[in-house]
């Protein structure tokens, strides 16, 4: 298989592909031969992505809608089936964020982030997975964030991305042996989302070459292709020009055995563990 036909014959759904990382992924995937369903809540930008793909000789359709609506997610996946009779890859890219310390966020913002980042990701997958299982193949690529590990003023957004990471690990286990793989990327790329974050923090910064969304696009396309047939349940970090695997959170071993449980013995054990770090 050569580099330019790695996705030939594959049908992909990419959410939030009207701009930012999703748009670059969509263009690259189409360039590698995939048929792409370009979702975005903003119809104009979805159409622009499709126009750019077609100009370059690729194949795509726009599908405008809000992934926080579970009924819409079903229509989105079925649109891919209606066009190509299959769905080979789903890129759960659409997402948004609100910044601020925990006590400054309002309930509506919290609900919107959960509805789009967590439930939108889950609903798209819930409709794609039965189709993929029936075909005995498929690749789901979620988009998480470094904020899942905790970043000041991004706790709520980070929590939604922590949920995306947890779903990635859990779905990969659920689907073991089915031919369907689930992985995630954790990008760092110059987009309007990063511009909004910098504005919030009062940072005046120029786009940096190592934050090129193309790096994420290449990684997502690799995960969508059969070249990653051996990769499942991984979160791949793309930042500062480097790829790394993200370690799954788990208890640090060895722990401390506590024979006689009391607040005093717990205090002593925690002290011992922290001192040993
Ligand atoms: N840019 C980064 O460095 C970075 C870092 C970590 C994670 N991410 C994640 O990458 C993904 C893409 O981010 P981006 O930086 O390209 O952002 P972006 O804001 O540039 O693009 C996001 C796109 O998603 C669309 N969208 C938003 N809500 C939607 C909804 N309900 N239904 C359908 N489409 C919707 C928007 O209209 C937009 O076109 C997000 O999930 C984000 O959380 C980005």
From TrEMBL:
GO MF assignments: oxidoreductase activity, acting on the CH-OH group of donors, NAD or NADP as acceptor
A Pfam family of this chain: adh_short_C2
Segments crossing the lipid bilayer: none
GO biological process, one term: fatty acid elongation
Family as reported in the entry's similarity comment: Belongs to the short-chain dehydrogenases/reductases (SDR) family.
PANTHER family found in the cross-reference section: BLL7886 PROTEIN (PTHR42760:SF135), SHORT-CHAIN DEHYDROGENASES/REDUCTASES FAMILY MEMBER (PTHR42760)
Protein's name according to its UniProt entry: SDR family oxidoreductase
Biological source species: Sphingorhabdus lacus
């Amino acid at each position: 298989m050569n580099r330019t036909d790695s996705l030939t014959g594959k049908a992909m759904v990419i959410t939030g592909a009207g701009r930012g990382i999703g748009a670059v992924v969509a263009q690259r995937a189409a360039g590698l031969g995939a048929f792409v369903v370009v979702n975005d809540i903003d119809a104009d930008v979805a159409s622009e992505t499709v126009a750019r793909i077609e100009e370059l000789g690729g194949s795509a359709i726009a599908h405008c809608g809000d992934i926080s609506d579970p009924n819409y997610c079903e229509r989105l996946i079925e649109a891919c089936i209606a066009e190509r009779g299959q769905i080979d890859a789903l890129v759960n890219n659409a997402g948004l964020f609100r910044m601020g310390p925990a006590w400054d966020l309002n309930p509506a913002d919290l609900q919107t982030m959960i509805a789009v980042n967590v439930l939108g990701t889950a609903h798209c997958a819930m409709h794609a997975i039965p189709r993929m299982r029936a075909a005995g193949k498929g690749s789901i690529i979620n988009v998480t964030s470094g904020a899942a590990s905790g970043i000041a003023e991004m706790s709520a957004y980070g929590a939604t991305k922590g949920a995306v990471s947890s779903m990635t690990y859990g779905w990969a286990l659920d689907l073991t042996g089915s031919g369907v793989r689930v992985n995630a990327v954790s990008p760092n790329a110059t987009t309007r989302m990063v511009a909004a974050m910098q504005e919030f923090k009062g940072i005046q910064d120029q786009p940096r070459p190592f934050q090129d969304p193309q790096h994420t696009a290449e990684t997502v396309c690799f995960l969508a292709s059969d070249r990653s047939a051996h990769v499942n349940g991984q979160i791949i970090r793309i930042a500062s020009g480097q790829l790394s695997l993200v370690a799954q959170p788990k208890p640090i071993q060895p722990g401390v055995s506590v024979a006689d449980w009391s607040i005093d013995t717990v205090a002593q054990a925690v002290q011992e563990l922290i001192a040993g770090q």
